[in-house]
From TrEMBL:
Classification via Pfam families: Lipase_3
Signal peptide (residue range): 1-20
Domain Fungal lipase-type, first and last residues per copy: 100-284
Organism of derivation: Metarhizium rileyi (strain RCEF 4871) (Nomuraea rileyi)
Protein name: Lipase
Length: 389
């Protein structure tokens, strides 16, 4: 018997379950704590690999109302940048007795045009994404894009414009594939492949030195996708690892999502905020599934009211808000649910001033003109080529 992807999605959504709950103070504290670890992954100073094993503090307290909270004594014990632009660090906290692995997604805008280029050969939604982009350009795209940053836009495109499979699996690694017959987002897998060895080695060393400490893996946005792979990988290596992800895109197919959801060595906390559009890419009709359960805060995390949705392909919770290009074109107001300050309660991450040590990220992340005229022209050309094929 043959089922279409759309039919399968509808079937899975029917068996998905949801329940309304009030998040406990402990859960909210944990969500806030690991959102902060994830946000600090965007400080270059913590992930550039230049100060390995120097005890750099994760949080300095500068520019952060209320201070560092549970990150007060956390120090970086390993940094791991990669040639793919993704990065991360491992931190140790004696106060909370935790080993925390934090991932950052690909460096914003690193290969934006190559990401866009893949759209023209994908499912109809990918092609429509590019065709919509051309219309957007014609209507004065830069006016809307002045309101949101290049990192957000380019990361959305990177997540959307990729496919299941297509990557060369590292057959020399006994932990791969993570699960039999699973397929992964090709871009996320390639990024993770450059980080996994150093991550695993560091966690082994820290657990040997601190056997009673918990292992927690976290990440925001595309870093959340890498954190999903990281947690699954560490569990397969024998570690108990909890996972906290924020605004995660879909990482693999339904088999992968089901496998990670059912791993017994650690709990999954896939946190979503309101109508975060990034939580709905890549699309289900391209074969992707989500890790379960989802902890959805429809009115924002500060409201404490959440809905728990189970099922790897549920169309409830944040899944009830499909992603379209106009979500990006809508500017800052529409993309606000995905901004990291919406996930870390009362944590207005203010950029370089909040980063410890060196000044942090270079340049202005809120670039008033996110794309050059050359990039806009290339987007038009790529979309035109896709429409002709």
């Amino acid at each position: 018997m043959r089922f279409s992807i759309t039919g399968l999605s509808v079937l899975l959504s029917l068996v998905a379950t949801s329940s309304a709950e009030t998040a406990s103070e402990e859960m909210l504290r944990n969500i806030d704590t690991f959102a902060r670890y994830a946000a600090f992954g965007y400080c270059d100073h913590l992930v550039d690999g230049r100060n390995i094993n120097t005890g750099t503090k994760v949080c300095s307290g500068g520019g952060i109302p209320g201070g560092c909270g549970d990150l007060q004594d956390a120090v970086v014990v390993m940094e791991f940048p990669s040639s793919e632009g993704a990065a991360g660090y491992v931190a140790l906290s004696n106060k909370t007795q935790q080993i925390v692995v934090s991932f950052r997604g690909s460096k914003p805008g690193r290969d934006f045009l190559s990401d866009v280029n893949t759209c023209k050969t994908r499912t109809p939604k990918f092609l429509n994404f590019m065709q919509g982009a051309v219309d957007w350009v014609a209507r004065g795209m830069q006016d809307n894009m002045d309101k949101i940053s290049r990192p957000i836009i380019s990361n959305v495109v990177k997540a959307a414009c990729s496919v299941l499979g297509g990557a060369v699996i590292d057959t020399s690694d006994p932990l791969f594939p993570i699960c039999p017959d699973c397929q992964l987002h090709s871009g996320f897998y390639e990024a993770f492949k450059g980080l996994k060895d150093k991550m695993l080695e560091t966690v082994k060393e820290q657990k040997a030195a601190h056997p009673d400490f918990e292992v927690v893996v976290t990440g925001y946005s595309l870093g959340a996708a890498l954190a999903t792979l990281g947690a699954a990988y560490l569990r397969k290596a024998g570690f108990v690892a909890d996972m906290y992800t924020y605004g995660s895109p879909r990482v693999g197919d339904a088999k992968f999502a089901e496998f990670v959801s059912n791993q017994r060595k650690g709990k999954n906390f896939r946190i979503t905020n309101a109508n975060d559009p990034v939580a709905n890419i890549p699309w289900q009709d391209a074969g992707f599934g989500h890790v379960s359960p989802e902890y959805w805060f429809p009115q924002g995390l500060a409201a404490k009211e959440m809905q728990v949705c189970s099922g790897t392909d549920n169309l409830q919770c944040s899944g009830s808000f499909p992603f379209n290009l106009h979500d990006v074109a809508g500017g800052k107001a529409r993309m606000k649910p995905h901004v990291w300050t919406e996930y870390a309660i009362g944590f207005p991450f203010t950029g370089p001033s909040a980063c410890p040590g060196r000044s942090g990220r270079k340049g202005n992340p809120e670039d008033s003109r996110p794309f050059s005229e050359e990039e806009v022209a290339a987007m038009r050309r790529l979309a035109s080529e896709g429409a002709e094929e």
